[in-house]
Amino acid sequence: MDSRERGYLLKENKKLQETLEKISLQNTELLMLIDFLSTLLVATDIEKITQIIIRHIRKITGCKVVKFVRKELKPNTYGYYTMRDNDIGKVFLDRSQLGKDCFFMYCKKLYISNEDEPFIAVPIKYEGENIGAIIIEEFESKKLENQNVKLIEIYSLISGIIIKNCILTVQFQMEKKVILEQNRKMNEDLQYAQRIQEYLLPSGENHFRDYYFCCNHIQAQYLGGDFYDVFEFSDNKIIFYIADVSGNGVSSALFTLFLKQAVRGIATSFNGLPIYPSKILEKLHIRFNDFMIEEELYIGILMGVLDTEKNRVTICNGGHNVEPIHVKVSEKKVISYQLEGLPINNWFKDPKFPYEDKSISLNKKDRLVLLTDGATEVRGKENKTLGLKEIKEILYENMNLECDVQFEKLLKHINTFTNESAITDDIAFLCLKRKV
Fold this sequence. Notes:
The chain folds into 2 domains: 3-171, 2-Layer Sandwich (Beta-Lactamase); 189-434, PPM-type phosphatase domain (Phosphatase 2c, domain 1, 4-Layer Sandwich), CATH 3.60.40.10. 39% of the residues lie in helices and 26% in strands. It has helices spanning 3-41, 46-61, 146-200, 250-268, 277-289, 373-376, 387-397, 403-417; strands at residues 65-71, 77-84, 87-94, 111-113, 119-126, 129-137, 204-208, 211-218, 226-232, 237-245, 299-307, 312-318, 325-328, 333-336, 357-361, 367-371, 427-434. The strands form 3 sheets. Strands 3-2-1-6-5-4 form a 6-stranded antiparallel β-sheet. Strands 7-8-17-16-13-14 form a 6-stranded antiparallel β-sheet. The longest helix has 55 residues, at 146-200. The radius of gyration is 40 Å and the shape is elongated. The N and C termini lie far apart (135 Å). The mean pLDDT is 83.
């Protein structure tokens, strides 16, 4: 082998060695990066994550000092870490205390100083947001090659993702805790409001001479928009009604309070004058329009006045969509009355037509049953609604039972009809019975 061939082989061998060294270095860096990532993946505490980042930066650079600044969860607060030897110290700074080291977090890219005391500053960002910075000091510039600098940049990118994720996780847990506490408090308030509404809704039996009223209800939520009331207007006149405020929840429930106070207040204005349900509804319509209420909110109501001397009920419909049901016990039949009327609303200031009264005579043991559409529109198999016809059949089958038992039978039938599914709408029941 001549000298020319030997020189060529030596040159190729040197290239091969350089390639192997480069591959070995890259392999080492890759192993360090894998170790870095695997360590971070099992850590969830932001303090522990910060210390892992600092120690790995120290490991890949071989520097004596690593400084690290990052945002804390508290607004305008920063954590400032310094690692010398093996100890990591930390102080808290507010925005006014940030020094020059901390402002490197606002740099656009890696910054290298070539002064007497060289340092490298790497901003930590996440999608443009400034999260922190790494400052490396007291290193041998000959040992810190370009490859290491590129690795530091990779570490800063990973650190930005990990730290931001940790911050978001902690914030989520804190917000979740606040939401759960607010939800607990809201549930307590709703339960308290429910007790108030329960108190305002008369239940059981109310006796007035030869008549009694039986009232009951089932609510789908804590608060409902179904409402009824019974009260004595004069020695021989009893006012009663059943109503359904549109929507559900707090807004509907609050309007049941308005309804109770408004109707009773309107009734007092008829002191010494003849009182009719239609006249009450006309005044109620005017009072409702005094409120600046959205058009979506309205009240469907059946208003009645019982004359205990004449054994007669005068009833008027204000947009209620369930017909009043008359159980005629002596005649052994059940009928309903189709009454028309506008709901209480603010769609227009004056009704297009006046409310009309219907007079109904009550014989001995007769009943008049008022319901809300939570009973008639409940859905069973194949999305079929129960309907008024089937309810009338239930009342017919149980016409000799007391009103409260009739309501229990109705609820039992609804439960079977829906295959014991939870009710989705309120059900209110008001039954007027003539005893003798």
